[in-house]
Amino acid sequence: MKKWLLLDTNVLVRFFMNDIADQCEKAKKIISEVEQKKAYGIISLTVIQELIWVLEDYYELKRADYIPLVIQLLHLKCMVCAEGKKQYVLDALTRMKKCTLDFTDVYLCIIAKQKNYEVVSFDKGIHSLLKKE
Q1: Which residues pair with 40 in a beta bridge?
Q2: What is the pLDDT of residues 25-51, one digit of tens each?
Q3: Which listed CATH number (2.60.40, 3.40.1350, 2.120.10, 3.40.50) goes with 3-132?
Q4: Which of 6, 14, 28, 78 has the fewest CB within 10 Å, making it most exposed?
Q5: How many of the other CB atoms lie within 10 Å of CB of 27?
Q6: Residues 6+ apart with CB under 8 A from 76
Q7: Which residues are CB-contacts of 83 (< 8 A; sequence separation ≥ 6)?
Q8: Each residue's pLDDT tens digit, 82-115
Q9: Annotated domain spans of the chain
Q10: What distance in Å separates the CA atoms of residue 5 and residue 23, rounded to the nearest whole number?
């Protein structure tokens, strides 16, 4: 029976940034287990949101640099999202590369489109993105 590993943001940051040797090695081992289908990796939406914040605001990475890596990680067969559909997360990340909206706003637009919901927000950017679709 495969183990279910709920991944914290710091594990993903170490995996991507390779900046604290011992933690990085542990993170790589965990992701390798998921890659080899020995374990399921579970990522919460809050972890994705925090990861984006840390990579952009703390490490000052550009979306074009980190989003492909996050998408690649989420494409692993044994990587799942704790809440919602993984495809919605992937769609939101892909669209983030083309706009300045944050993950939450783009994710809300994805859900609205998929579920035929109306988004209620004071954020003009959300409504602008919805009109483009």
Answers
A1: 4
A2: 999 999 999 999 999 999 999 999 999
A3: 3.40.50
A4: 6
A5: 21
A6: 34, 35, 41
A7: 44, 45
A8: 998 999 999 999 999 988 989 999 999 999 888 8
A9: 3-132
A10: 16
